[in-house]
User: Fold Aminoacetone oxidase family FAD-binding enzyme from Anaerococcus obesiensis.
Amino acid sequence: MRIFVIGAGVSSLAFCSFLDNKNITVLDSNKDSGRKLLATGNGRCNFTNLKLSYENFYSQEKDFVNYSLDNFSNNDLLEYFEYLGIEWTNLPSGRCYPKTMSSQTVKDALMMRANENAKFIFDQKVLDIDFNKKLIITEKNKYKYDLLVIASGGKTLKNSGSDGSIFKILEKHTKIEDMTFGITNFKAKNPLSKKAKGVKVNAKASLKVDGKFIKSSTDDVIFQTYGLTGTAILDLSNLISLALKDGKKVSLDIDFYPEYKKDGLLKKLEEKSKRFPNRNIEELLIGNLDKKLIIDILKRIKINPGKKNISRNDLEKISNILKNLPFDIMDINDKNNAQVTLGGVSCKEIDKKTMKSLKIKDCYFIGEVMDVAGDCGGYNIQWAFSSAKTASEDIRRLNV
Assistant:
């Protein structure tokens, strides 16, 4: 039985590594495999998370991910990496990486294993699929299949091969949920000035949608002339993107001192002001804020940086804005470098216990091509493996 896989990304490599079948052929438009994998975690490959939860995934079909994540969990993936000979480590946040801190390590180990089970044919852009005749049409050839696994990814990082062209083929045969971009950075209506560009702080970012608090994340926040980025922003980015797609009002409040309540921070500022009575406000805030941020922060609350004779009211304004610096989020800033696609093939038309299409005969979907997106933190690679494991087990049950 001829099994064809479209795409040579991480879900495809996982699938081929799981299924001991010598009649698997993988087609990919690139000249090599795993391009997107190499970019994961800034090239370090954050491949799962010790704090894995169903809540880290987004889909229009509630609970769709649960079966596969239970069937092949983060602990199962860690054990599988050890089986492949990949040593791993984790950060206090729960993010797991190869010991080498290199995505190349993971790609090489997976590719060696996948090559034992599959034949890879590169530079094969899929133009169309005749699902009735079970025929894949590429720019260079035509291929007959018995079972088809679509692992082509979403429409993010187009240079990796995930250009979204597969959806134009699929939309004639199965429902495609509206798509947008996740794990990305955002434009703000009220960004800080060029002076603050690139300043990184450890802060708490709190997301509000239509004025209602949704979620917060404490980690790096980076100020840019367009708006905001950094790990804390990426952690919230899927929720932000979904809210923007739905036309909702989105804001982020930055708390520079999450370890203090407002009264506690005010008290520290008052003590500092008494200790250094001859300093102006700008000088007083050195040590509390990066110098490149001070002017912007004071401008927001209309206080002259050179002001002396600092009043309690001045310090209250400062403590308030250090606890709550608001940004109105307008749009995704860089769609080309977003790391995940929100939306895709509707999970309502996929069997969650097999990954088999309910609309297209003998066709499976795995990975990001489906309407499943994980948070930043290793969740999307976990989903690639979990969904690939589910599909491979169903195909194995067919005794092919």
Summary: The first helix runs from residue 10 to 18. The chain has a mean pLDDT of 96. Residues 199 and 290 are 8 Å apart (CA to CA). The first strand starts at residue 3 and ends at 6.
